[in-house]
Amino acid sequence: MSQIWVGIDVCKDWLDVHIRPQGVILRLRNNEVGVKYLIKQLPVPTEVGRIILEATGGMELTAALTLHQAGFPVVVINPRQSRNFAKATNQLAKTDKVDAKILAFFGEAILPELRTMAAEETRQLNDLVTRRRQIVEMLTAERNRLSAIRGKAREDIEANIEWLNQRLRGLDEQIAQQVKECLLWSEQQQILTTVPGVGKVVATTLISALPELGSLSSKQISSLVGLAPMNCDSGKMRGKRRITGGRAQVRSVLYMAALVATRHNPVIRNFYNSLIERGKLKKVALTACMHKLLIILNAMVKHKTPWRIAETTTA
Fold it and tell me: Is residue 224, in this structure, part of any structural domain at all?
């Protein structure tokens, strides 16, 4: 029996589903009840080629996790991928039903690689790490406002800063407790934080937002994060190689880690200085340091080796 291909366009309240090649169209509630109804409409998982959803800021998680737990081959893709695919196939119209159809067609034509989805515990940890980052951003904004405010308004901002600091301490305690309760996370955190420039915030972000760390090759992990330089050549023209796509949250913490490492980590500092001496722009050199640091961290977790050993184990 030929396989079927499923595209699901996700919004806050609804799931628009297209099943190829039958052309079945469904609109279901975006909750567990709706997803379980969808599962009843599908054949056994082995007869499903791919179920494709777009990353929509977390609104896709209920559907993706429920389908994944039921054994179906689920892939969550970057919305840019499906939009570029639609343009390439001259599908210019954009509605929920059309988007679902394009996603199903994308799954059949491209056959995107399946990856193990993060467990619920990992997602909960990532939610805490994400919330911590949001609190830090709010604290920064409030502190920036203080310089131009006087009187009662200033008192209000100061009170809010105090409350945000309390919430930040509370989140740090929750994150530390979750990591402590999981032996694997504790071991990974201990390994990662042996690297000069990598603190607990960077380590927990990598653990929660990049659970594939240590299980992929250097090229695969670089591509997943969005730190693999992409060529931009055409004919005789040789363009600059650029990084694109990937996981912005991970790149953000790697940027800060690499920035610190260029000052305090001898391996990264020497690498950075050598690039600057060769005429590389500082931004380019720092991006290269992020890439090198990621490769080192990936090897460390893979081989369960701390920093003093990992310097020569970067494959």
Answer: yes
Residues 6+ apart with CB under 8 A from 40: none
**Cβ pair 262, 269 in contact under 8 A:** yes
Count of domains in the chain? 3
Distance between CA atoms of 198 and 82, rounded to whole angstroms? 35
Quick check: is 123 in a domain? no
Structural domain including 225 reads 200-233+240-310
pLDDT in tens, 176-191: 999 999 999 999 999 9
Token reading at 99: 């988007």
Residue 18 lies in a domain: yes
- AA letter at 121: E
Element (H, E) at 258: helix 248-264
| pTM exceeds 0.90, yes or no | no
Contact status, residue 5 vs residue 108, Cβ threshold 8 Å:
yes
> Do 299 and 313 contact (CB within 8 A), yes or no?
yes
pLDDT 10s digits, 279-307: 999 999 999 999 999 999 999 999 999 99
